[in-house]
Amino acid sequence: MSAFTIDKRDNGVAVVTMDLPGESVNTLRASFGQEFSEVFTDLQDDPKVKAVVFTSGKADFLVGADVKMLESCQTAAEAAELSTNAHRNMARLEGFRVPVVAAIHGACLGGGLELALACHGRVASESKRTKLGLPECQLGLLPGAGGTQRLPRLIDIQSALDLLLTGKQVDARKAKKLGLVDEVVPQAILVEVAVERALALASGAPEKKKHDLKSEVQEWALTENPLGRKVVFDQAKKALLEKTRGNYPAQERILEVVKTGLERGMDKGLAAEAEAFGELVVSPQAASLMSIFFATTEMKKDTGVDDPTVKAKKVETVGMLGAGLMGAGIAYVTADRAKLAVRLKDRDAEGVGRGLQYARGILDQRVKRKRLTKLERDQIMTRVSGAVDYTGFNEIPVVIEAVFEDLGLKHRVLKDVEDAGPADVIFASNTSSLPITKIAEGSRHPETVIGMHYFSPVEKMPLLEIIVTEKTADWVTATCVELGKKQGKTVIVVNDGVGFYTSRILGPLMNEAAYVLSEGVSVEDIDGALMDWGFPVGPITLLDEVGIDVAEKVGHIVHEAFGDRMTPPPGFEKLIADGRQGRKNGKGFYLYEGKKKGGKQVDQSVYGVLGITPNKRLPKDEIAQRCGLQFVNEAMLCYGEGILRSARDGDIGAIFGLGFPPFRGGPFRYVDAVGAKEIVRRLNRFRDRLGNRFAPAPVLVDMAKTGKTFYGRDRVEPGQHTSEHMARRAAGASA
Prior knowledge:
The protein is 51% helix and 11% strand. It is α/β, with parallel strands linked by helices. It is globular, with a radius of gyration of 28 Å. The termini are far apart.
C-alpha cells in the first residue's frame, strides 16, 4: 500500500495526503523517496494540475526521519547518501512547475519541517498540538534534508540558529511571527485555506507581506555583510560552547554548515550538510543519544511489572499530603497534565494556601507567556481543592505523601490515610531517603505501600522513580506507573533499599567531590571539571541547591547502611554548625545576595569554616574521573544487588533524574563503551592511591573477566551478585 493518496480536484488543485499504512505517525523512510518521486512525476505530467497541497492523514503532519533507519547506518557514506537523496526530493519539490503549499496540523518536526520548508507556502492549524521544529541536535545530528540551508533563508538568522542549535519547538502562532508559516487557521478549514493559498500563488497574486525596513537592514547587516556575519557566528559559537563545553559536536557542525551555505551558496551548503550529517549519524554521541530515544519510547509501553495480565486501577482523584514545594508541584502536574482531581491537604489553612498559590503561580506564568488562556488556567485550578483534614479521602484510591523526612510522622499519616480512605487505598511516599519497607511496617496493608520519588522542581524534572518492596502488589505498581505517565513523567521502577537508586548513586559522587575539596581544590575547579565532563551543574552547586542540611542527614543514613566506603571527609559538620544550608537560606558555598557580574561567585569564607586553603591544582580529568567513577561504580553495585530491573532503567534514571551526561548514554552504556576491563583498571588505580571506597563492584570484575556487556548479545543480568554485596556491606558496617 502506498503512503500517498492524491485527490485531484476540479479547481486544478491536487491534494496529496501522506498516511503511512499500519503506523501511528508519519516518518521519513528509505522507501519514501521512490514513492514521493512517483507521486510528483504523476503530478508533473498532468496539465490539469495547477497547484498542490501537501498534508497528512495522521494526527501529526510528519514527525521526522525514522530513527531506526538512521541507527542501522554502518558508515558515514551510507548516512550521507540518505541526506543526498533527501536533497534531490526536496529540490524537486522546491522547483516544481506549480506551487506547493503544506497544510500543517500536529507535529511538524525534523524532516517534516524540512519538507514544509521546501514548499512554496505553509499554512498551519491553530491547534495546541501543532508544533514546528528541527530537533535533530537532540539526537546528536543535524537536519539532513536541507533544513540548515532553507531555514536561515526563510527567517532571520538569529531565530534560525536558535531553532537549529536548541531543537526547540514552536507553536503555530510563534511560527507565524517568525515567518515560518504564512497563515494560522482553525483545523477544520486548514486544507481549504491551503487550497486557496495554492491557487493564489498559481495565479501570480503578489504576496501581502509587511515590510519592516529596520529589520531588513539589520538582517542584511548580519547575513550579507561579511563582518556582521562573522560577529553573529562568533557570538553564537561562544554562547554554544559555554553550554555544551565542546561535548556535543552536532551543534558546532550546524554552525559550520549554515555559515558555509551563506558564504558559498546553496549547493555548497547542501554538500556540507550531507557530509556532516553522515559523520554525525555514526558518531558515538549520536549512538548514545539515539539509545536514549529508543529507551524512552520503550518505557512508554512498560507497565512496571512483568506480568502482562496485571491491570492498573482506575484513578480519578489523587490525595496529596503536604502542600510544600514538592506536594504543590505534584498537585500541579496531576491537575494540569494528568487532568485528574487533587485533594491537597496540609496541617493548617496557611499551608494549604501556600500550596495552592504555588500551583496558581506556575499557571499564571504560562498565561503571561501566552501558553494558556485565563479560562484554561481557571479550569485547571478547579481540579485542585484544599483541606486541613481527611474529609473527602474516603473515596480516593491513591494518596501521595510529601511530609517531612521523619519515620514516625510518616507512620502517623499512613495510619490516618488507612483510617480515612478505602480498604485498598494506595499509600505512596515521596521520601528520598527512608526505605519504603520501613514505612510499610506501619501499615495494616503493606502490599498497598509504595514509593513515588519525584524530583524538584516537580513541574520541570522529567523523572519519577517508583520504589517497590517485596510485599508491594503488582496492581499497585502498575497503577502508580500509569499515574506517573499521565503526569508527564518518564517512570522507572526500582526495588527498595537505602537511597533507592538515584539518591544512592548521587551520594558517592557528592562525597568524592567533598574529598577533593578537603584536599584543597577550589569549588570552581571541582564544579567546572564535572561540567566539562558533561553534567549540567557541578556537585558543589548541587549541594547548595539540594540543601547542605539535607545532604548531611542523608549522608548519615547511607553511611550507616553502607559502611566505610560512604564515610564523608572530616570537617563538613562545621558547615551545619555555621548555619550553612545552601541556597534556601542564602548561605552556602556560593553567594546569593545581589547580582554578581560574571555569574555566581564562591563565598570565600566557606574555606575558613572548613579549615581549607584552596591552593591545590588537580587536572580536570582526574577530578571528573574520581567523581564520575564513584557514580558509575555505585550504579553497578545497585545492578548487582538487583535494585534495578534493567540497565536501561539505570541509564534513564541517571540521565533524567541526575543529569548524567546524555552524550555518554548513561552509566551502563558508558561502561560498555569504555569497556569493563578499563573501568576496573581505573578504579583499582584510584583504590591503590585513595582507599577501598574505589573498590570495583563485583559485577564489573566479572564482566572484565568474561567480556560480558550490559547491552550486547552476551548480557549480564541484574541481581547476580546480591550475596557478595551483602557480605561487603556487612564487612563495611562492622569496620
